[in-house]
Write a structure and sequence with these properties.
Radius of gyration: 24 Å
Shape: elongated
Number of helices: 8
Largest sheet: 4 strands, mixed
Order of helices and strands: HEEEHEHHHEEHHH
């Protein structure tokens, strides 16, 4: 009985360790085989991508580099992990892959060592990412998305039931405090990826994009001080010649 209790406590401790582990606890290897802690990227917005050099989606490197150049100074990091699991489309060594990407796409964002993203040898990083953001389907109104769905369903009718990465250039968006908030499939429009990145980097854009129209009210009045604050904000709105000819009426009686 005592031994069983000890085993149970050890299992519980192990479960707590896994649950408590965050992205900053994970180590990866860079393109020179050196250990890199993802804790080094704390405070940065991350776009983590599994890539391939001989894929129909490989030209996305151009869009990723443009995104990096545009937002890197604002706090974006793109982390590139080549993977040869999908159609053997990332052959060669990491040095050969890096030379190809710099020569053909002039990339400047960091590339890391080749990894598996699925299966028993999957990188702990991608195991973590998949657990946070599962597969939510391809856009079937997109011809490429429909083609990908048909191709994968022929291989496995239930392919969409798992959180596995489905193909090259799947992207995970991580906030500056380490939360994995979005997953983009390779068929997703890069404009949507950029908007999500911009929203994380810019709190104003984030607030606008997160706004909701809610018509459900509490049965109590809004505090007078809050109404005055809103009124002050309103009268500071810009106007022609900055004349600000505003007249604000606050009605507190129902």
């Amino acid at each position: 009985m005592k031994r069983l209790l000890t085993i149970c406590l050890l299992l519980a401790a192990g479960m707590l360790t896994v649950a408590a582990q965050g992205i900053y606890d994970i180590q990866v290897k860079d393109d020179a085989g050196r250990d890199v802690s993802l804790g080094d990227y704390r405070g940065k917005v991350l776009l983590i991508v599994n890539t391939a050099t001989r894929c129909g989606f490989t030209p996305q490197y151009t869009e990723l580099e443009a995104l990096y150049k545009k937002y890197h100074a604002e706090g974006l990091e793109i982390l590139d992990f080549p993977c040869n699991q999908f159609g053997q489309q990332a052959p060669g060594s990491i040095r050969e892959i890096h030379e190809f990407c710099t020569a053909n796409y002039d990339i400047e964002f960091p590339q890391f060592d080749k990894i598996d993203v699925n299966g028993p040898q999957a990188s702990p990083l991608f195991t973590f990412l998949k657990a946070q953001q599962g597969f939510q389907g391809f856009d079937l109104s997109n011809p490429t998305g429909k083609m990908m769905d048909q191709m994968l369903r022929r291989q496995n009718a239930d392919y969409d039931k798992s959180s596995d990465v489905k193909w090259n250039f799947t992207k995970f968006l991580v906030t500056a405090d380490g939360r994995v908030i979005r997953r983009f499939e390779p068929t997703d429009d890069m404009k949507n990826v950029e908007m999500a990145v911009a929203a994380e980097l810019n709190p104003v854009i984030g607030a606008i994009m997160a706004r909701r129209s809610v018509r459900k009210y509490l049965d109590k009045p809004v505090e007078h001080e809050k109404l005055l604050t809103l009124a002050r904000c309103a009268i500071n709105a810009p106007s022609g010649m900055n004349a600000q000819p505003w007249l604000v009426r606050v009605v507190e009686d129902q």
